[in-house]
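Quick check before the chapter quiz. The format below is the same one you will see on the exam, so make sure you can read both the input and the output lines.
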Amino acid sequence: MEISIIIPVYNVENYVLRCLWSVVKQRCSRLQVIIIDDCGNDDSMMIVEDFIRSNAHITWKLVRHSRNKGLSAARNTGLNHARGDYIYFLDSDDELPENCIENFASEAIKRSNVEVLIGSVQAIGFGKKKKALEGRKTKTNLLIKDGEVLKAYNDGRISATAWNKFIKRSVIVEYKLYFKEGILHEDILWSFYLFTKCRSVFICNHDAYIYHANKVSITSTMGYKNFDSYLYILSVLKEEVLMNKIPLREFYENGRFYILVSLVKSNVDFFQKQFFFDSYRKLSFFSRSYEVLFSDTTIKIKIRTLISFLPYQVFRKVLLGFANIKLHLLL
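Here is the expected output.
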């Protein structure tokens, strides 16, 4: 079994060595490590090239873009050069836990019919080290099949990320699962298409990813392009869900509410906030606020959806009020 690890590199000179060392330390003999140079303006690639020369026992594939194209395009370039039986996406400012790939490979051999294997994520940099299972409610050593896959994605037991997942390349090739280029938060749309096609998922009980929250794309620094990308993603998701009658209303409404909260906390100016808030509100599955009361969604979804129909300034005050009286768990 060969595994292709896809690592886009762009302006990560302070972190990329940590990432590469975590790959080299994996105890797996058949690794194809694909590095995509996305034309940054720091010394990342000089560090990468020196590291590759010093670790020639690994099969490296270095691919250079002619100009900066973004994370989606870099991952797509990696997919086009991958030859492994399985694909694993790794951001160059994050790292692999010890024995991550070996553990995935061992599970994949035992469960050869499973299309996607998923593990736990360690999150570092939020004031303390946190460890979370895939989703908040997910049991480990759990096989999810057929219609249950979409249900698990809908209720948050499977996260909308590309990383921490060990994916059969044949599935990606069969369904042409490439990332939408030119947008941010591309994982949301990509994972949506993956799990509407995927027929089997296994939730493993081992660590699969170490996420470092040193990114410039943390909520407090979100700008216009972040929310413009969200607007595009929500529009596509709503059209796909309605047209193909896909049961993902909870996932969609949860995501829409999260974006509204992020918008309130962001540093975009008031008029942009007002524009995006009105646009996101129109993208609800419910055309009138009272309709949600008679829906079969959860209490939390009903509360979130009802609040999202409020005018922007009122919505903002309600969020602050809920936080102040410690009722934020309802949201």
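If your answer matched, good. Residues 219-330 form one domain.
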